[in-house]
Amino acid sequence: MITFEGVTKRYTGGTVALDDVSLECPTGRITVFVGTSGGGKTTALRTINRMVEPTSGRVLIDGKDVRERKPAELRRGIGYVIQHAGLFPHRTILDNIATVPYLLSWNKKKARARALELMERVGLDPAMGKRYPFQLSGGQQQRVGVARALAADPPIMLMDEPFSAVDPVVRAELQDEFLRLQEELHKTIVFVTHDIDEAIKLGDRIAVFQTGGKLVQIDSPENLLAHPADDFVAGFIGQNRGIRTLSFAETSALRLSDDAVRAASADAAQAAGAEWVLVVDDDRRPLGWARPAQATGPLGKAKLSPVGPTFQVGGDSVRTALDAAVLSPSGLAVGVDEAGAVVGTASGTDLLAVPTHGRDAAVPDRSGQPGEPERPADPEETDAGGAG
Ligand SMILES: Nc1ncnc2c1ncn2[C@@H]1O[C@H](COP(=O)(O)OP(=O)(O)OP(=O)(O)O)[C@@H](O)[C@H]1O
Questions:
Q1: Does the keyword Membrane apply (predicted)?
Q2: Which domains does the chain carry?
Q3: Does pLDDT of 371 surpass 60?
Q4: Cβ neighbours of residue 351 under 8 Å, at least 6 residues apart?
Q5: Quick one: pLDDT at residue 167?
């Protein structure tokens, strides 16, 4: 656990970059610092590895003040990833990744073996190990940056806008892989971004900073969307807040209907009265939508409109299901199981009846105390105290 206790940072010249910030970054979780430019996010991040010393207040790792540790020793237990990756241009990719192992005096063979293992882990072809950074794309360089930060297996990772310099498609890929990696590694991660969508996608906890270094709210993504603490946070989250809340509503609680589902062998006459029916094969896989009134004989032989997007029951959110309903010719979303077989259909009204945080009476948590974990993780897994 990383703890900020009343941390203030006043730079020479008088700028207050952090104003009495108290918060906790739980072990094994991703805490995202988000907010306006100049809000003090980077300053806050850097107080953790002593690149910035607070004017007053304390930063603790597992209860121990970071000032009790020598910066070099402290930083060996804290991976650091920055925008544009910050790779050494004249070192090969392998040697870039092995930077910290070399500093820790690992022998060259072991350090390179570790670097190769990490290349695979972050989705890089190990054959690229002999290249130099300029011979890699921006997205590949960022992966190297992540691999380099992970090389000595630090329990803590600080990430300062690590995915900002790449295009949106690559960025989404990097984010997905980062989340997959975190599911395996359970690092204690503090992640700085300008982008509220990135914060909501990646964060277990989100801390919103306002210009002047004030922490305005720290909360789960669900609560932040449903209950912004004030107009600043609401404005920062932006439009479509209600719809975005549906990303956190589960489809497992949905009651799906079988009324509109028909076998391909069923006769159109049996479905008379229904405007649309979903035609399925023997394994209940969806074949398409049919209008019984315009068909004769088996529905499988009728003119079918494409099924369009479906949603996986229990796997996808209500937002995905609502998207499927909007895009469906019938206005009904098709829910499938893991094998792709149709479980049933739901209308937009059915979908909006699912309880969400946006409609419950939960009170936002502004205390800085972590609430119930949003993502399962083994709290025993990480030992930040072993840093260095
Ligand atoms: N070394 C420094 N000396 C003086 N002022 C600084 C220094 N570093 C940062 N600041 C000021 O402190 C404030 C907070 O800066 P910081 O970089 O922490 O904000 P940020 O939220 O990370 O901003 P951005 O999103 O634009 O990167 C800003 O007003 C900045 O100009």
A1: no
A2: 2-247 (3.40.50.300), 252-353 (3.10.580.10)
A3: no
A4: 254, 318, 321, 322, 325, 333
A5: 81
